[in-house]
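Arginine biosynthesis bifunctional protein ArgJ
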Amino acid sequence: MKVIEGGVTAAQGFLAAGLSAGIKKGNTKDMAMLYSKVPCEAAGTFTTNIVKAAPVKWDQKIVYESEKAQAVICNSGIANACTGEEGFGYCKETAKAASLALNIPEDSVLVASTGVIGQQIPIEKIKKGIENMAPLLSESIGAGTLAAEAIMTTDTVKKEIAVEVEIDGKNVTVGGMCKGSGMIHPNMCTMLGFITTDVVISKELLQAALSESVKDTYNMVSVDGDTSTNDTVLLLANGLAGNKKIETKEEDYKKFAEALNYVNTWLAKHIAADGEGASALFEVKVIGAKSKEQAVTLSKSIITSNLTKAAIFGHDANWGRILCAMGYSGAVFDPEKVDLYFESKAGKLKIIENGVATGYSEEEATKILSEKEVTAIADVKMGTATATAWGCDLTYDYVKINADYRS
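Tokens:
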């Protein structure tokens, strides 16, 4: 497997476009279109929030009930959440407009929205955006980048990646883009993710690969503890790589799953690093756990602790906050056996051993914690299971961004 240039247009047969449809203030890109030359198998994972945006309900219907999918229409600026029957009707109108513009079935069009909750989307601008984007569709890397930029809200950078792997003697590509910066919490986040691949695979195994990957990637990210109404990850496979169809969980499936997981992990980490107001990516590894479940619970508890996140912002080795977060997680462990390390490009330092401080240098700890990427490693010495979670520090800017988000 190797990383290659591009994102959603890297795989054969996928085209994209992005432009300003006038949904956001100013001349800012706010609509994206993704299209496959041939119908695709589709898989999806969605928010666990009971309050689900209209596009989530629409996409669940398409993924679960439609035979194929072929296009995705996404807007930023307005979430189309808490908009009732009218909002769901706009999803149908969006799909109908795309169906006419692309000459594909209405029930093969997926839709996604992100932005302010509670407002109706300007459907006429959406329709006009679709009409304008269709002629702009391109397989170029630049077109994929435009789409990645168009789905951003409070994101400060676009997020796209692609990898290539050999399966059955064929080059198979997996490419992806996502957006996510705030209202990010495990069990999906205010994130939209779109993954494309040219692999030939059954719909059942495509969904299995995505569902399994999400557990260790997007579900292990937290910025602020808020689970969104719009979280959606869509995976489209158009089969143009020409490999023998993957129908069992054997070697070819494992190769594809590994490539997919690499893409999702990269995107998840970049969501965390681009958390609203963030100045550092904060990674937490729990090792020596009795079970994967225990490791996941402990790592998530640490990554979501506001006191710990504030300490990371202050470059303060306040390890008591980490041990405290582990203690209220609900996982059972012996705090008097825990070892804790801080690590970054500046070095690695053992902070506590068997639950007590090691007499470490505060100056060295501060140096390690002053890097752009910081890792905490907690060893609970109970087994061999591990888990990794990603978050970011908690800064003054997070409050500023969310205090005037609508105004």
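The chain has a mean pLDDT of 93.
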